[in-house]
Amino acid sequence: MPKTKPALNYNRANGYEGLAPAELKKLDDVCARYRDFLGKAKTERKAHDEAVELLEAAGFQDLDGLIHEGAKLKAGDKVFRSCAGKTLLAAVLGKQPLEKGLHIVGGHTDSPRLDVKQNPLYESGEMALLDTHYYGGIRKYQWVAMPLALHGVFVKPDGKKVVICIGEEPGDPVFCITDLLPHLSADQNKKSLGESHEGENLDVLVGSVPSKDKKAKEKIKQRVLELLHERYGVTEADFLSAELEFVPAGPPREAGIDRSLIIGYGQDDRVCAYTALQALLDVPGTPEFTSCVLLCDKEEIGSYGATGMYSNFFENTVSEMLALCGGTYSELVLKRALESSWMLSADVNALFDPLFPGVSEKKNAALLNQGTCLTKYTGSRGKGGASDASAEFVAQIRRIFDRAGVVWQAAELGKVDQGGGGTIAYLMARYGMHVVDVGVALLSMHAPWEVSGKFDVYMTYKGFAAFLKDGRRNK
């Protein structure tokens, strides 16, 4: 038999062309479950809790409980471990010892938002407002004059935690940040987009009715405090130990007359977090190498803190897993396990937008419906801050994706001198493991409402699943 001639050209095509009906049905199912998760997981705390609920329903056990019991781990065991109710690691133990390395998919569950300050409540102009500090790379003008919901927790000195969620149910009130009317915005119009709204002016309107307390000096503020105490049992001092976030109100929706798109808040990076988690839940049987999903916090502000990737949570958890697997534990064994691991840094890229073509170099930009996006390097301009994956490792991912029928594309984040971005890839690559970025490309990234393509979401899930279960490593 004569050998088939390889295709000499690299051709890109819309993934819906030739998509089998059975796979289209699975695509719709994955995306429906993703929308449900996205609507519930409006904060990193809620994303963590939703993920834990899914893991426990699938038979995963809390690793801390197993440590306390002195249990032993074996191939096929399913475990998870949390950090401060925000960061999460879940794993299915593989046939190969941990020292041979893990297959890791790691994303983040924090998203740009408005955090409520510690001493936030004040009254001015016959209104009560909450002072905020924006979190992550927002474009401030996008957050005004739109419905906002309040999520978070008050933690009282005795340890009692009071969960707050206002603005998501159909009958709930919502909140907003006011903006100037065009009739009075002549001075504002002279400013650049970045200067038109100052961070200190992103204060949220929360009330306007005065208290009946005649002794109160600020009666509208007092009425807000009265309502908070009546409904939640909290006082103004409890804001000092609270974590409250304003996010866009309302659930994610299907978009487009053909329903091929998803619009919703927080898709950077919960789209990759969900698809990674679902891929782990769907790993069949016992994988060859331990399959691991890492969902971390604080990526949008540099990955600092106890719940960010700069912390030792990941390596501490792998250490605990090594100890429970028996055998001889040592720092050398841990280092071998980390260095031998493979990782997909699960984070989003930017789709080519025909309304703003000048920021992209089209042949190296991600295109809608052309599958999950592999980003060999991120960084800024001269690859500053990038984790540049090796050609050898990219070839391994090509092999895995192509064998599994994963539709994928390669892309950069904008033109060379235009900007750039970063992910957690470089923080994991410091262990010596192979890492490359893979994820869904979005429209309107970091806006209150981001847009993804269902086909790309599905192929990202399919790619993560193929990577997690793959047991063959080419030399």
Question: What does this molecule look like?
Answer:
By secondary structure, the protein is α/β, with parallel strands linked by helices. The protein folds into two domains: 21-111 and 265-469, 3-Layer(aba) Sandwich (Aminopeptidase), CATH 3.40.630.10; 113-248, Aminopeptidase i, Domain 2, CATH 2.30.250. It is built from eleven helices and 22 strands. It has helices spanning 21-40, 44-57, 63-69, 186-189, 219-232, 267-281, 313-324, 331-339, 391-403, 425-429, 454-469, and strands spanning 61-62, 78-83, 87-92, 102-108, 113-124, 127-135, 148-155, 161-166, 204-207, 242-248, 253-255, 261-264, 290-296, 342-346, 349-350, 372-375, 379-380, 408-410, 420-421, 434-439, 441-442, 450-453. The strands form five sheets. The chain has a nine-stranded mixed β-sheet with strand order 1-2-3-13-4-14-20-16-18, sandwiched between helices. The longest helix is centred in the N-terminal third of the chain and has 20 residues, at 21-40.
